[in-house]
Amino acid sequence: MSLPLSAFPFSRPIMTDTDRQTRAAAWFASLRDRLCAAFEAIEDEMAGSPLPAGRFERTPWERPDHAGGTGGGGTMAVMRGRVFEKVGVNVSVVHGTFSPDFRASIPGAAEDGRFWAAGISLVSHMRSPLVPAAHMNTRHIVTTRGWFGGGADLTPTFPDPQDTADFHGALRAACDAHDPAYYEKYKEWCDRYFFLPHRGEARGVGGIFYDSLDSGGWEADFAFTRAVGEAFLDVYPRLIRRSMHKPWTAEQRDALLIKRGRYVEFNLLHDRGTLFGLKTGGNTEAILMSLPPEVKWP
User: Fold this and answer.
1) Using an 8 Å Cβ cutoff, are 92 and 77 in contact?
2) Are 157 and 256 within 8 A, CB to CB?
3) How many CA atoms lie less than 13 Å away from 275 in the CB half-sphere?
4) Nearest Cα to Cα of residue 213 among 152, 147, 151, 150
5) H or E stretch including 201?
6) pLDDT at 13 over 50
């Protein structure tokens, strides 16, 4: 969804830099289109399935503003197919004012709750238990400050050392091209963040996670955020193709459904992105797109 620049009537310099906002929002939308195309191509490659090749269905939504108008919106893009049991690639561009009880937790919003935010969020749940689930999101948020955040992580039911090495290798390369300190810092942050304290276990095999990235160079931070998206687009389809044709058993599928339960627990109990979306009046279906279509607990 594209919005006119007049939709962001902020008075401070950082809030009126609509060129940067437009560029960031356009990048998230273009990355969405390329990811959807890559995933639909994978669906076409899966032979011998009784299911039809999946295609993304796009559903636009608008965010109601407290003043009675609209506070931006976004588009859900969800596909259910023969390789991807459910995958969503959502984009949004929203603006408004944080509630008083929430603004203290947002950098730069304590004194002035106005905000602008754009981003892309992807979650894939695979039909085969031998193909890892994945999550990727990047975002740009502007209050009295402006910053980037995001990351990518992998959640296999049966971890494969080569998949893990290739996934982390792609993210390391993206980090190293911008700052040699990024990878270890953001890998450790991911390990801490995607952890289920009530179970004492990690959600998956990790990746990178970063937030409040404001190095003082907007172009550099934006370039790094783009590099994270490019790295994911390059490596994840390769991991899918590596295992999507392998046969699997009913017992392995049962293990997949139980593993998905951990995903649900994290997203509903601990995920800050879920909280941010709900607290800012986002589309509930888009926010909960990350939940799998089928799950079980032992």
Assistant:
1) no
2) yes
3) 11
4) 147
5) strand 201-202
6) no
Query: What CATH code would you report for 5-290?
Result: 3.40.1500.10
* Dihedral angle, C-alpha 61, 65, 70, 73, nearest 10 °: -30
The model's pLDDT over 158-205, given as tens digits with 9 standing for 90+, comes to 999 999 999 999 999 999 999 999 999 999 999 999 999 999 999 999
What DSSP letter does each residue of 85-150 carry, written as one string? EEEEEEEEEEEEE--HHHHTTSTT-SS--EEEEEEEEEEEEESSTTS-EEEEEEEEEESSSEEEEE
What's the first-to-final CA gap in the chain, in angstroms?
41
CA distances from 149 to 80, 229, 277 (A): 28, 12, 15
Question: In this predicted structure, what is the pLDDT of residue 66?
Answer: 60
CA distance 56 to 79: 4
Angle made by CA atoms 91, 97, 98, in degrees to the nearest 5: 85
Name the nearest CA neighbour of 274 among 284, 260, 263.
284
Report the chain's mean pLDDT, rounded to a whole number.
90
CA 180 vs CA 41, 177, 187, 217: distances in Å: 34, 7, 12, 16
HSE on the CB side for 267, CA within 13 Å? Answer: 16
Catalytic option among 95, 125, 135, 140: 135
Which amino acid is present at 120?
I
Active site residue 135: yes
Question: pLDDT for 245-258, tens place per residue?
Answer: 999 999 999 999 99
Structure tokens at 96: 């408004």
Q: Report residue 68's pLDDT band, with 50, 70 and 90 as the boundaries.
A: low
What is this structure's pTM?
Answer: 0.90
Q: At 39, list the tokens.
A: 């995933």
